[in-house]
Amino acid sequence: MATPFIQMQGIVKRFPGVIANDQVDLTIYPGEIHALLGENGSGKSTLMSVLDGLYQPNAGRIIIDGEEHKFGSPRDAIACGIGMIHQHFKLVEPFTVAENITMGAKNGDFWLSTEKIKQEIIGFGAKYGLHVNPNAYVWQLSVGEKQRVEILRILYQGSRLLIMDEPTAVLTPPETAELFSNLRRMTEQGCAVIFITHKLNEVMELADRVTVLRAGRVTGSMERSQLNPNQLVQLMVGRDLAGRSKPIQTELGPVVLNVDQIEVLNDMGRLGLRALSLSLREGEILGLAGVTGNGQRELAEAICGLRHIEKGSIHLHGEDITNLNPSAILDQGVSYVPEDRLGMGLVPDLTIIENLLLKNYQQPKYSGRWLLHAKAIEENAAALVEKYNVKTPSLHQPVKILSGGNLQRLLLAREIATIPRLMIVVYPARGLDIGATNDIHQLLLDLKANHTAILLISEDLDELVALSDRIGVLFDGRLAGEFPANEVDLDELGLLMAGSGQTNGGEPNAI
Amino acid sequence: MSDSTLVISILAAAITAGTPILYAALGELLTERAGILNLGVEGIMLIGAVSGFIIAVVTGNSWFGLAAAMFAGGAIALIHAVLTVTLRANQVVSGLALTLFGTGLSGYLGKSYIGIPVPSPFTIQPLGFLTDIPVLGPVLFRHDILVYASYGLVVFLWLFLYRTRPGLFLRALGENPAAADSLGSNVFALRYLYIVLGGMLCGVGGAYLSLAYAPSWLENMTAGRGWIAVALVIFALWNPWRALVGSYLFGGIDALGFHLQVSGVTVSPFFLNMLPYLFTILVLVFVMIRQHGRLTAPGALGLPYDREER
Ligand SMILES: Nc1ncnc2c1ncn2[C@@H]1O[C@H](COP(=O)(O)OP(=O)(O)OP(=O)(O)O)[C@@H](O)[C@H]1O
Ligand SMILES: [Mg+2]
């Protein structure tokens, strides 16, 4: 085999109370695509941040081209040809694409010569097939485009190793396919790639070699060709996955939610939903597929009373809840698990106990006339954490230190505990490992068996097909098509998501 | 005095009165562009005014005084940098503490200098043929050297912010320090640099008061100009040109009140003293309405940066 490009040896990284990386070794060869796998919280992002110079390891060595290097900051890593795209993009939103990319230039001139930069970006784009408009502002771009800007920036820095932390978590299937072909083209030019993912099919499709982490330690590092998905699961989880129960055909009860021809504005003040109608019955899961930005958020927020409804009406159990205030709607048994867990669902700096209290602090069990009943609150929190298997060092930790899967379990625990009659979940498994995804899906199925009506909004077609009774497609604020889940044709769904399916001639289609 | 010469003299006075505010506002603008809010401007100006005055009296040279004011302003701002960048203290608290500290310290240091004249204050130096331009000439080019320097500073800062690479990084620092960091710029060192530079400019603003505008030392002689400068940075939407316009507006109100009093219009001086602050409030209301309550403030303004923070 060729000589290694990068060797990480015995890396240890501790955070207060946790060892995120424990004696980790990782070897990267020039021009390879290396997949890094592991459950939520197994230390993947931490390891890559060490390699990027962002985190200082407590022990261990980094050897590049046979020479040991100490990284004091990302600047040192960049000098060694290492560039990283983080789970949360690090772009300056109010800047243009050109400005963002030129910031990565190694030795740029003192004066900004925007014209020259634009020419270079277009040239680079042509070479790697990465096309972006250099004049666009970053905040105007879709997630996939932002990612392209990040990649361009790293290539522009002259990097020989591109690290991508869960690049596909936020991409649609076509965007993912495009990313993969771009990555292949880059490796042909001699660039190595490390990518983190939770999706095994992506590993099997793209990777040359695979390294698996579990609880901060390496449990395996080998050629992709010597592996099958089951072995990968074994390495990641340490056991075989318990299969989740098949969605039982529950008796569908009466109609719970009836949305009738609503129109809602989006954040830009344009129509976000156009005469959209749907209805949902007790014990039913209605899946809504669609590319982010086609009205998902607007729909969820309109139902919960967080967004003004311009036209149309929403009925819950036959009662008109159109434009009621959110607390009145929540009191009717509506639960909402938003896509933005740490921004909207939970309060990052409050403790686990406090976050669990947010929805039921008014109940006499938990609060008296003036004071909260600390003991009852803590007992309730402890019980929920236990029941929903949230992994945390203590109940008094701020929730922002939890890993993605645990955040989602905590949020669902709080929402399910209220025994909702209608549950709205948006991208419930985004960024979660397979184990956690399984658990979350099981929770939703249990809820369904409990006669809750569930509106499941997701980009993941497999997830939708596995859970839903019916699947609709959201495109441009309308419902484009509706299928019973067992008759669904994935290709047709894909076409509808891209907006190229046959539409019903603008007629509002209730499903 | 004919009407036109009256207008010209009021406009010229507006520039003189606006210059200390302009220096302070540019200093604060630089600091806030780096993502740090410094509410210590008032205190730093006072320290600049008193130290510039003392050194000018002791050495007999106002240039030494100016240098001392810059040094003192930078030094006080350095305290803010240590507190907010390294120790990640709350920026509002730290800034307010600096203002209280600066007010007290300047009063203490300047006690025995009250009533002493500056040996050689900065005086008006008309800029040759430029003063012959009708209206603009006497308004813009019949000032002391510090005013001319402030024109240059505005042009320079504007070019620096929008036309140079370090300026781009400065803006990134205030918008998204994590992005600047991951691109290899040293967030901590740069924030220190811009906080200290900003403090030096505030110091100059103070020294302009005690060495040029009203060459003397009076306790609390900034009289709230530091606070006006802070508000002005918002009005200016973090743009040096708009800071210049805003400073001269405030200077104009100052000058107008003075002229009214001199010309014998019977308006309470308390009312006139109140005007700049009333105007500050109106300006803020106006800006907020124009911006629909959404300011284009640097995105990370006021937030400490910690590389390993989640
Ligand atoms: N900045 C931090 N401060 C404190 N603890 C942290 C920090 N970053 C990570 N951790 C902890 O270190 C462990 C590893 O976290 P890391 O983010 O590396 O996991 P991951 O494998 O990337 O997980 P995911 O798949 O959810 O992204 C977790 O227990 C996490 O809580
Ligand atoms: Mg991660």
Characterization of the model:
The complex is a heterodimer of chains A (511) and B (310). Chain A has 511 residues and is of the alpha/beta class. Chain A is built from 17 helices and 20 strands. The longest helix of chain A has 16 residues, at 173-188. The termini of chain A are far apart. Chain A is globular, with a radius of gyration of 24 Å. Chain A folds into three domains: 1-81 and 160-239, Rossmann fold (3-Layer(aba) Sandwich), CATH 3.40.50; 95-158, no CATH class; 256-333 and 419-506, P-loop containing nucleotide triphosphate hydrolases (Rossmann fold, 3-Layer(aba) Sandwich), CATH 3.40.50. In chain A, the strands form four sheets. Chain A has a six-stranded mixed beta sheet, with helices on both faces. Chain A is 32% helix and 25% strand. By secondary structure, chain B is mostly helical. Chain B has one domain: Orthogonal Bundle (ABC transporter involved in vitamin B12 uptake, BtuC). Chain B contains twelve helices and no strands. Chain B has helices spanning 3-33, 41-59, 62-86, 91-110, 136-140, 145-163, 165-175, 177-182, 187-213, 225-235, 240-262, 269-290. In chain B, helix 3 runs antiparallel to helix 4. The longest helix of chain B is centred in the first third of the chain and has 31 residues, at 3-33. The interface between A and B is medium-sized, with 31 and 25 residues. The complex binds adenosine-5'-triphosphate (ATP) and magnesium ion.
Query: What is the CATH class name of chain B?
Result: Mainly Alpha
Would you identify the CATH architecture of the largest domain in chain A? 3-Layer(aba) Sandwich
**Per CATH, what is the topology of chain B?**
ABC transporter involved in vitamin B12 uptake, BtuC
Structural class of chain A: alpha/beta
- First-last Cα distance of chain A: 58 Å
| Strand percentage of chain B | under 5%
Please summarize the sheet with the most strands of chain A. Answer: 6 strands, mixed
Low-confidence stretches of chain A: 502-511
What would CATH call the architecture of chain B?
A: Orthogonal Bundle
Number of strands of chain B: 0
| Cα-atom radius of gyration of chain B | 19 Å
Mean pLDDT of chain B: 91
Could you say how many structural domains of chain A there are in total?
Answer: 3
Domain module tally of chain B: 1
Mean pLDDT of chain A: 87
- Profile the largest sheet of chain B: none
Shape of chain A: globular
